[in-house]
Amino acid sequence: MVDEEREREEDESESRDVWQIAPPVGIEEARRQGHVLKALADETRLRILSLLGERGGELTVGQIVRCFELEQATISGHLRVLLYAGLISFRKRQRQVYYFLNEAALRQTIEMLEGLLHDFPTRRNTGPR
Predict the structure, then answer these.
(1) Cα–Cα dist 107/89, whole Å
(2) With 70 as the cut, is the pLDDT of residue 77 above it?
(3) b vs e for 13-31, b when ≥16 Cβ sit within 10 Å of the residue's Cβ?
(4) Would you call 100 helix, strand, or coil by DSSP?
(5) What pLDDT is attached to residue 56?
(6) For residue 129, what are the CA distances in angstroms to 48, 55, 112, 122, 125?
(7) Among 57, 49, 43, which Cα is nearest to 85's?
(8) CATH ID of 26-119, from 3.20.20.70, 3.40.250.10, 1.10.10.10, 2.40.240.20
(9) Distance from C-alpha of 47 to C-alpha of 40, rounded to nearest angstrom
(10) Beta strand residue intervals within 37-110, DSSP E
């Protein structure tokens, strides 16, 4: 009985200790990166990013649509998600809108993911014991 009480007290102490540790990523940064990761979680959006990266410049929505078997409205919706996540930017030139990669945002996302790996403890044996 005494051993069970001691174990329960140790478990409660460990639980309290965990809640005293603040996560290294703040709420706002986690929310922002959440939008980015959701935007990256779609194959069409990844392909759009890849296309913009491959071309290394700016493309109009019409030029992007020609590379896909999707309607312009669908591509425009994907572009809105990517814009909201900050992964792409746009520039208006006369009546055309040109989209391009936001390299700084992509680099920041890569750094965030690398930070997660860096902070993650490595274990040699991850299987069941």
Answers:
(1) 15
(2) yes
(3) eeeeeeeeeeeeeeeeeee
(4) strand
(5) 75
(6) 44, 50, 31, 16, 9
(7) 49
(8) 1.10.10.10
(9) 10
(10) 59-60, 88-93, 96-101
Instruction: Please name the amino acid found at residue 94.
Output: Q
Q: Cα–Cα distance between 87 and 94 in angstroms, integer?
A: 23
The span from the CA of 68 to the CA of 65, in Å, is: 5
Token pair belonging to 73: 């409205």
- Among residues 89, 71, 69, 70, which one has the least CA distance to residue 79? 89
Q: At residue 91, does pLDDT exceed 60?
A: yes
51: tokens are 């296309």
Alpha carbon dihedral 37, 42, 47, 50, in 10-degree steps, equals 10
Per-residue pLDDT band for 30 (boundaries 50, 70, 90) equals confident
- pLDDT, one tens digit per residue, over 32-57 is 888 889 999 999 999 999 999 987 78
